[in-house]
Amino acid sequence: MKPSSKCETCVLYTNSGMFCAQLADDEHADLAGQSRTLSLKRGATLGERALSSWPIVAVDQGVLSLQHLLQDGRKTITTLFMKGDIIDLREMSRRNRGTLIALGNVKLCRLSPLIFEQIMAENPKAQKVVWNNLKDQTYRAIDHSADISKKQALEKVASFVLECLYHQDAAPKSTPLVEIPLRRVDLAEYLGMQPETVSRCFKTLQKRGILEAKSLNLLQILDEDRLQKIANGEKEAAQSLPTTARKIA
Amino acid sequence: MKPSSKCETCVLYTNSGMFCAQLADDEHADLAGQSRTLSLKRGATLGERALSSWPIVAVDQGVLSLQHLLQDGRKTITTLFMKGDIIDLREMSRRNRGTLIALGNVKLCRLSPLIFEQIMAENPKAQKVVWNNLKDQTYRAIDHSADISKKQALEKVASFVLECLYHQDAAPKSTPLVEIPLRRVDLAEYLGMQPETVSRCFKTLQKRGILEAKSLNLLQILDEDRLQKIANGEKEAAQSLPTTARKIA
DNA sequence: CGGCAAGTTGAGCCAGGTCAACTCCGGTGG
DNA sequence: CCACCGGAGTTGACCTGGCTCAACTTGCCG
């Protein structure tokens, strides 16, 4: 049986580590038949009603954000979902219920809860993939908490650049290129700071010869080691230049 | 078959919604036979070596924290684990690997990974409990991110008090008592602020007649509504007194 | 090539961090 | 039973990182 045409280019199916790739042909045909792909453009939200009938969503392309709004308009991006993530909103926390908003053009697939459950019950491989993905989401959220709680602005930005680096599946290089898949404003909201501050931090990193901007969203890392140290809060690494033999206060 | 004596008082077994309560008698006997309880006193850490052979831990009593340390000594508590939580450290994020540290006297149970896996594969009810617990951990982490990123000090503290309130399983009351299960220092590290600031915030909430301190760890909520509003960032609710007919800027 | 949104730069200000002194409380021994 | 001690928490005074607001520049799309 051939895969449903809409699945042919979807990473969930083509990437051997992802959910749909674990399914037997008949399972896949079942699921594909009962599921619906969806394209979102930047800023589009996945509304309540859409979610109540399709609470399970898998991300194919693009970055989806979970946003939280305070009464006075302050906005926070609490998590990012990227390709391969499976989001089950049925038991979304009642306290801080957020909104799913696309940060770029996003392609996703709304899975039939019924068939999804059925597959989860019967297919251990698929179950394992979903399980690991959820654990990964948990740890990402925890790491993110660590990043935004005690770190200062420059350290947050450094952490984020590294997070992007590690996330993209290219082979390690000495001066790797990193793509930042978010606008500055969104990045600011994700890191809990102001766009102006984000901008200043990037500039600082460039002035110190740690990064080089190829374009707004494309950075070359010139000194990964020092970037790492800044992200980890080593104050020395944050100094402008290697002033030889500086006294540590 | 009677439950292993060590399990008789453990919430994981006695609370009908928790993991061990889902097990058939023989499953439970298997698991209990291969698992080890452990008591930690405040400050004790669950070391690397202990975890490598016992990577799966269930919390019975007390509060366990996952801490993250920066190079220069800044500490952050990224998550709290409480009774009923099941922690699987086998795939702990490599990036920000943290340390598990007890924040009070903690009782936990190290589960045999082998038997745990076996039960997970065979017992759908148990699987569901673990699954929901993990989802809950994820959403807690996400909520926590929202709390610490854009909120200011007073709002963070208000959120935390409410989180404690909702977490403790008592019937709703008009002026409920809340137990804060953390020391001030730990609370500060969890909320990403300084102990001094935490102290000032509690004092502010008392001065405004929203809270009353019964003791350091026991608070009475006098005005839950206003507390809620502060936690949600409504600037008006944060005003000292209901200055009648104040103009909104 | 014009127009608008996104991003950057600069100047001033304030929430909360920092440091140091003080108080409170529980435990311990005389 | 009380005096003493040490750690936890609080208070006050000061200082600074990053927020705010406003003006400016850049990049993108028709």
Describe the structure.
2 copies of one chain form a homodimer. Chain A is of the alpha+beta class and 249 residues long. The first copy, chain A, folds into 2 domains: 11-123, Jelly Rolls; 151-248, Orthogonal Bundle (Arc Repressor Mutant, subunit A). The first copy, chain A, has helices at 11-14, 25-34, 48-53, 113-122, 124-149, 153-167, 184-191, 195-207, 224-231; strands spanning 36-40, 45-46, 56-61, 64-69, 75-81, 86-88, 99-102, 106-111, 177-179, 211-215, 218-221. In chain A, the strands form 3 sheets. In chain A, strands 1-8-3-6 form a 4-stranded antiparallel sheet. In chain A, strand 10 and strand 11 (218-221) form a beta hairpin. In chain A, helix 6 (153-167) packs across helix 8 (195-207) and helix 7 crosses helix 8 (195-207). Chain A is globular, with a radius of gyration of 20 Å. At the A-B interface, strand 5, helix 5 and helix 6 of A face strand 5, helix 5 and helix 6 of B. Chain A binds a DNA duplex (30 and 30 nucleotides) through residues 152-153, 183-185, 193-200, 203, 215-216.
